Amino acid sequence: MAVYYINSYDITDPELFKTYGPKLLPILRKYGAEILASDTAGIAVEGNPRRMNAIVKFPSEEAAMQCYNDPEYQPVKAIRQQATANCTMVLVKEFQLPAK
User: Fold this and answer.
1) I need a surface site. Which of 20, 21, 50, 72 has the fewest CB within 10 A?
2) Is there a contact between 7 and 20 (Cβ–Cβ < 8 Å)?
3) CA dist., res. 52 & res. 72, Å (int)
4) 10: helix, coil or strand?
5) Angle formed at CA 51 by CA 27 and CA 53, multiple of 5 degrees
């Protein structure tokens, strides 16, 4: 069953953050991930939005957690953590309609 990382955070160091994506993409590909949305100009419908919002699809929870815990990702994650604030990262399972 597919799972989705829903990420929201504020970018505090735009120059450092520019280095994050190019280093992240090969790691995501390694785990079969697909970036479904990534936007710094999201429209707030309710609440207090963060500057960056993204949704990343993984083929399974196992793949998502392996990616997050991959030793190759740890220095890349440190870039994101240093370049952002107010990070929320939630892993949710794909919704499946009940059979009729």
Assistant:
1) 72
2) no
3) 23
4) strand
5) 45
pLDDT in tens, 46-75: 998 899 999 999 999 999 999 999 999 999
Instruction: Supply the DSSP string of 13-67, one letter for each residue.
Output: -HHHHTTHHHHHHHHHHHTT-EEEEEESSPPPSSS---SEEEEEEES-HHHHHHH
Q: Band of the pLDDT at 43, cuts 50, 70, 90?
A: very high
Residue pLDDT, tens place only, 74-99? 999 999 999 999 999 999 999 888 88
Coil, strand or helix at 99: coil
Q: How far apart are CA 100 and CA 23, in angstroms?
A: 44
- pTM, rounded to two decimals: 0.90
89: Cβ–Cβ under 8 A, 6 or more apart, which residues? 5, 6, 7
